[in-house]
Amino acid sequence: MELVVLVDENNNEIGTAPKDTVHTKNTPLHRAFSLFFFNSKKELLLTRRADTKKTFPGVWTNSVCGHPGPGEKVIEAAKRRLYDELGITGVEVKEVSPYRYRFADKNGIVENEICPILVAFSDANPKVNPEEVDEWEWMDWKEFLAEIQNNPDKYSPWSINEAAILKKLKIG
Fold it and tell me: What domain count does the chain have?
């Protein structure tokens, strides 16, 4: 059973809860992370969330998202999920910015997370876990920045906001 770490607005741990019970219409604030995976051509690896996902099913998003478990560092969690979702190992992952969000999907299920933005660079192609990812593609970073402006409903709201933060930081 995967546990998520529940936190207050200052990111102080206040408990844990099973992941499969947390995401509802009243999701408590919890820790997460969001990873943007780039290759040497300055392309971003985009993934379409599996249609079976509880939150934002079938939506295109950044490379990997997930939750650190109790006592797990965010970089360790990101590397674990990078392997679990995309079969990729052996890459350096860096935290580049804090982020906090709350969004509801079309079914009213809420994501409510303190979610640092992470980046990694490699030319490895994924071997996707179909329980997590239905499709993937590499997209030029500048093209992605234009695409999310032209087709925002196609992408997760956090990936749109986080891309704007990365653009300001001149990452990508």
Answer: 1
Give the model confidence (pLDDT) of 33-42 as tens digits.
999 999 999 9
Domain that holds residue 43: 3-168
Dist CA 159 CA 153 (whole Å): 11
DSSP notation for the chain: --EEEEE-TT--EEEEEEHHHH-STTPPPEE-EEEEEE-TTSEEEEEEEPTT-SSSTT-EESSEEE---TT--HHHHHHHHHHHHH---S--EEEEE--EEEEE-TTSPEEEEE--EEEEE--PPP---TTTEEEEEEEEHHHHHHHHHH-GGGB-HHHHHHHHHHHHTT--
Q: For residue range 43-97, list pLDDT tens digits in order.
A: 999 999 999 999 999 999 999 999 999 999 999 999 999 999 999 999 999 999 9
Q: Please give the positions annotated as active site.
A: 65, 113
For residue 161, what is the domain's CATH number? Answer: 3.90.79.10
